[in-house]
Amino acid sequence: MISTINTRLEALADSPTAEILQRFFKTGPGEYGEGDRFRGIRVPVLRKLCREFRYVEVEVISELLDSPWHEDRMLALFLLIERYRASGESAREELYDFYCSRTDRINNWDLVDVSCPYIVGHHLQARDRSLLYRFVELPSLWERRIAIVSTFHFIRNDDFTDTLLLAERLLADPEELLHKATGWMLREVGKRDQPQLEAFLDKHATVMPHTMLRYSIERLPEGKRKGWLKRW
After folding, report:
1. Which of 104, 134, 160 is the last residue of a domain?
2. Cα–Cα distances in Å, from 90 out to 15, 94, 190?
3. Is the pLDDT of residue 62 over 90?
4. Which pLDDT score is estimated for 50?
5. pLDDT surpasses 90 at 109
6. What is the spatial distance between Cα 129 and Cα 147, in angstroms, rounded to a whole number?
7. CA 72, 75, 81, 82 torsion: positive or negative?
8. Which tens digits make up the pLDDT trace of 121-144?
9. How far apart are the first and last CA of the chain?
10. Domain harbouring 164, CATH code
């Protein structure tokens, strides 16, 4: 099966698109995606391919995650999400553990964002969430991003506590990609409960990274946005 999938991926490759994606995802020396390789396959095409191979075994998903190609790993995560959705509780536990054991291969912001709310966030909705607090302290930028973006699932269920607590821990994070992700999650809180967002901002707006603040207030009325920016 893996050889069949690889053949399909190779046939879908597009060099001009790959060059664009290499630049967009910062794959140069010293950049956050250093060394990542792209085939040049767009996400809608990968989603369509996922529907075709949605019943593959976890061993195939694991092989795709081991690939040096970004799109192969993206396809692996789409397949893992589909398998998680279709599984019972005991199998979901195994798939969640598998995901958490392979975070070294979930190593760019888009790979994190398309997957962690649907596996980590979903799985922890009614479970102990201490893993998120361990991840947010780890050296890996991507594991810290998994910690905050996984809470998107909680936010969709009007559960904001962990988002706000994790956001506090990320106020001093040096990575702009974490500032953007945290501001995004805070914005999602504000779309559902503006007073909760403003209470957080009242405590932290003067010390938040500017990017985090700017992202968090994007959906507020213009007058409110200007007011918070003046306080930075």
Report:
1. 104
2. 42, 7, 35
3. yes
4. 96
5. yes
6. 10
7. negative
8. 999 999 999 999 999 999 999 999
9. 54
10. 1.25.40
In a domain, residue 109? The reply is: no
Quick one: tokens of 169?
Answer: 């821990």
- Rounded distance between C-alpha atoms, residue 15 and residue 40, angstroms: 6
Nearest in space to 50 (alpha carbons), one of 14, 99, 96, 86: 86
Q: Are residues 129 and 221 in the same domain?
A: yes
Please tell me the chain's helix, strand, coil percentages from 3-state DSSP, rounded to the nearest 5. 70, 0, 30
- The answer to whether the beta carbons of residues 37 and 69 sit under 8 Å apart is yes
**CA 118 – CA 95 distance, rounded (Å):** 12
Q: In the structure, what pLDDT confidence band is assigned to residue 145 with cuts at 50, 70 and 90?
A: very high
Pick the closest to residue 178 from 203, 204, 212, 210 (CA basis).
Answer: 212
Are 76 and 119 members of one domain? no
DSSP three-state, residue 69: strand
Contacts of 10 (CB under 8 A, 6+ apart): 39
